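Supplementary Methods, section 5.1.

A reviewer requested that the exact input to the structure prediction be made available. We therefore reproduce it here, unchanged from the version used in the analyses.
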Amino acid sequence: MSRFIVAAAVFLVSLPALAQRAPVLELSAGMHRIEAEVVNSERSRMVGLMQREYLAPQRGMLFVFDADARHCMWMKNTLIPLSVAFLDGSGKIINIEEMQPQTENNHCAGRPARFALEMNAAWFRKRGIGPGFSISGIDRAPPAR
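The structure derived from this sequence is encoded cell-by-cell as follows.
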C-alpha cells in the first residue's frame, strides 16, 4: 500500500512538468495564431492541462488521438476554464464545448474526431470561430503513439 501512495505522489508531482515539456506546434484559425502544446501519447493526453493555473491567450493544447472516435474530455484536476474544439482529420471543427474547472462532466465530440484543441474559455466564440471552421497546420501534428 505504501508503494502505491509513493508512486501516486511522484506521478502527481510530475504532472505539471510532463505537460510543460510537450512540443509546441504552431496552428492558425484564420488570422489567429495558436501555440499548441502537442500531447499524442496516452499518458500525456491523460495529464493534459491538469494543475495549470494559467494559459497564455494564444496558447492551447492539441490532443492527437490514434483513431477517429467520439472522444470525450473532462476537467478533473484542471484549474482553469477551457473551451475544447473537436476536429476531424483535416482540422475542421466538428463541435466546441465549454468546460468548467474541476468538474467530471463529459464533453464529447459530436461525431468521430481525430483531434481535440483546448484553449482558454470562450476563445473560439470571441473570435467568431465555430463548427465547420478549419484549423490550419494540423497536418504537421505528429501521429499518436
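The chain has three helices and eight strands. These observations are discussed further in the main text.
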